[in-house]
C-alpha cells in the first residue's frame, strides 16, 4: 500500500514537472496565503504584546484600596458629627505590607481639596500627601526642579502641577518661591509636566486631572495639617477625619491580583465596623486587551484565508485545464485497467503536491517574519527616518505556533477540497470517448 502511494506521488510529481510554469503559478497562491497567515498573526501578536505590556504598566497589576465616606444612617453618632471619621488607617497600610508577602509595593496617599495662595493669586487645588513612588505610579514627569524624596519627610516643601503652577506663578519660575498653604509657607521644589486626565489607570480610581494638583510629603501633611481638616471651596465647608485616602497595592503577577484583593478585603473587614473602604481591581484592562487580540487575530486569519481561497480556486482552474489536456492519457489508463479511484488518487496527489509544496514554502518564509520585518524597517528608516510612526519601531513580531499549524492545515485542506472536482471529472470520463479525444 505504501509502495502504491509513493508511486502515485511520484507519477503526480512527474506530471507537474512537465508544466513547471503552470504548476508554479498555481502553488504561488497557496504560498502567499500560507505566508500571509503566519505573518499577519505574528505581527498581530507583536502589537498585542506591546499593548498588554503598556496596559500592565498602566495598572493592570495594581489593586486600589480607597476610603469611601459611608452614607449617613440618620440615627447614629456618625451622622451628627461635624467631623465624620472614616476610611483607611495607617495601621491598615502596615497590616497589608506585613501580612501579604506577594506584593511588590504599597503606596499610601492622602488627598484633600485645598487653597494655595501667592500674594493676590490663589488656586483651588487637590493637595496630595504622597511618597516618592507616587511619581512613577501615576506616570508623572518633572518639568522643573525635582520630585519629593524621603529626606523631605516632615519638611514644608511642595511640588506644583502644571496648571497650578501657572495660576500661582504666571510669569515666573516657581522653583524656590514660597506658597501659602493655610497658615504655613511652603517652598516650591518642583513642577510636573502637563498630563492628560486618567480614569482607573495607575493609581487613579476616578477621572483625575493631574494638572491641578499640588504634592507634599505624606508625613508633612500628617504633622502640619493633620487628619482632621475643614475645607472651604466655592462657599461650601466640609469637614472630615481621614488618615489615608488611598493605598495602591502592586502585585508581582497578574495571576495573583484576585487572590491578593480577597486577602486585603478580609484584613480590612476584621478591623472596620463600617463599609468605609472599597477594594477595586482594574484587571478589566488586561481582559479587554485579550479580547481585542482575539478579535484582531480572527480578522487577520479571515483576510489570510481569503488569500488561500483564491489560491485554491487557482489550483482548481489549473487542474481542470490539465484534465482537458490529458483526456487521451486518462482514456489510455482506463483502457489498460486503471480504476476510477486510481484516476482520482492521481489527480488528488497532484493537487496535494501543489498545495503542500506551496504551503511548506509559505511556512519557511513565514518563519522569517522577524528578520524580514526588521530589515524592511531599517531600509525604510534609512530612506526616510520620519516615515514610520513610533509604534512600528517598538513592534517585534511574535510567531504563534498555532498559526503555523493552521496555515498548513488550511493549505492542504484547500488543495484537497478544490482538487476533488477535477479528479472526479477525470475519473468519470468514458474510456471510449477519452480515447477518441484529439
Automatic annotation (TrEMBL):
Where's the ABC3 transporter permease C-terminal domain?
302-431
Taken from the UniProt entry, a GO cellular component term is: plasma membrane
Q: Where are the transmembrane segments?
A: 21-42, 295-322, 343-369, 399-421
Which keywords does this Swiss-Prot/TrEMBL entry list? ATP-binding, Cell membrane, Hydrolase, Membrane, Nucleotide-binding, Transmembrane, Transmembrane helix
The cross-references to InterPro entries, in alphabetical order and at most eight, read: ABC3_permease_C, MacB_PCD, Macrolide_Exporter_MacB
Give the EC number(s) listed in the UniProt record.
3.6.3.-
* Gene Ontology molecular function: any one: hydrolase activity
Its membrane topology:
Multi-pass membrane protein
Identify the enzyme class. hydrolase
Is Lipid metabolism there in the keyword field?
no
Chief subcellular location equals membrane
Locations listed in the record: Cell membrane
Q: Where do the MacB-like periplasmic core domain residues begin and end?
A: 24-264
Family to which the UniProt record says this protein belongs: Belongs to the ABC-4 integral membrane protein family.
Q: What is the name attached to this protein's record? A: Macrolide export ATP-binding/permease protein MacB
Q: Which organism is it from?
A: Novipirellula artificiosorum
Amino acid at each position: 500500500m505504501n509502495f502504491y502511494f509513493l508511486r502515485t506521488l511520484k507519477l503526480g510529481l512527474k506530471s507537474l514537472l512537465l508544466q513547471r510554469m503552470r504548476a508554479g503559478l498555481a502553488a504561488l497562491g497557496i504560498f502567499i496565503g500560507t505566508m500571509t497567515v503566519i505573518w499577519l498573526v505574528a505581527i498581530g501578536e507583536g502589537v498585542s504584546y506591546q499593548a498588554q505590556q503598556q496596559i500592565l504598566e498602566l495598572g493592570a497589576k495594581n489593586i486600589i484600596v480607597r476610603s469611601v465616606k459611608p452614607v449617613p444612617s440618620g440615627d447614629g453618632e456618625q451622622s451628627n458629627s461635624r467631623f465624620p471619621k472614616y476610611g483607611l488607617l495607617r495601621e491598615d497600610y502596615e497590616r497589608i505590607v506585613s501580612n501579604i508577602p506577594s506584593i511588590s509595593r504599597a503606596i499610601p496617599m492622602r488627598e484633600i481639596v485645598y487653597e494655595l495662595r501667592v500674594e493676590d493669586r490663589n488656586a483651588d487645588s487637590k493637595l496630595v500627601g504622597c511618597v516618592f513612588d507616587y511619581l512613577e505610579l501615576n506616570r508623572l514627569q518633572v518639568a522643573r526642579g525635582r520630585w519629593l524624596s524621603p529626606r523631605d519627610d516632615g519638611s514644608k516643601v511642595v511640588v506644583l502641577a502644571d496648571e497650578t503652577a501657572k495660576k500661582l506663578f504666571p510669569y515666573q519660575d516657581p522653583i524656590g518661591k514660597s506658597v501659602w498653604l493655610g497658615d504655613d509657607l511652603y517652598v516650591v521644589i518642583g513642577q510636573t509636566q502637563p498630563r492628560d486626565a486618567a480614569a482607573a489607570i495607575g493609581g487613579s480610581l476616578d477621572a483625575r486631572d493631574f494638572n491641578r494638583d499640588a504634592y507634599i510629603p505624606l508625613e508633612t501633611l500628617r504633622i502640619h495639617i493633620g487628619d482632621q481638616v475643614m475645607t472651604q471651596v466655592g462657599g461650601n465647608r466640609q469637614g472630615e477625619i481621614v488618615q489615608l485616602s488611598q493605598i495602591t497595592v502592586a502585585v508581582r503577577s497578574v495571576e495573583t491580583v484576585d487572590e491578593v484583593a480577597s486577602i486585603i478585603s478580609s484584613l480590612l473587614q476584621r478591623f472596620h465596623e463600617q463599609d468605609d473602604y472599597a477594594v477595586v481591581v482594574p484587571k478589566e484592562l488586561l481582559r479587554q486587551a485579550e479580547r481585542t487580540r482575539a478579535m484582531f487575530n480572527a480578522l487577520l486569519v479571515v483576510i489570510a484565508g481569503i488569500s488561500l481561497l483564491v489560491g485554491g480556486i487557482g489550483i482548481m482552474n489549473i487542474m481542470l485545464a490539465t484534465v482537458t489536456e490529458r483526456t487521451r492519457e486518462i482514456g489510455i489508463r482506463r483502457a489498460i485497467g486503471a480504476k476510477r479511484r486510481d484516476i482520482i488518487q492521481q489527480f488528488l496527489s497532484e493537487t496535494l503536491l501543489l498545495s503542500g509544496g506551496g504551503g511548506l514554502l509559505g511556512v519557511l518564509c513565514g518563519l522569517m517574519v522577524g528578520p524580514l520585518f526588521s530589515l524592511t524597517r531599517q531600509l525604510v528608516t534609512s530612506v526616510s527616518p520620519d516615515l514610520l510612526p513610533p509604534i512600528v519601531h517598538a513592534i517585534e513580531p511574535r510567531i504563534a505556533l498555532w498559526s503555523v499549524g493552521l496555515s498548513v492545515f488550511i493549505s492542504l485542506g484547500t488543495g484537497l477540497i478544490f482538487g476533488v472536482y477535477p479528479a472526479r471529472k477525470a475519473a468519470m470520463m468514458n474510456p471510449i470517448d477519452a480515447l477518441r479525444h484529439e
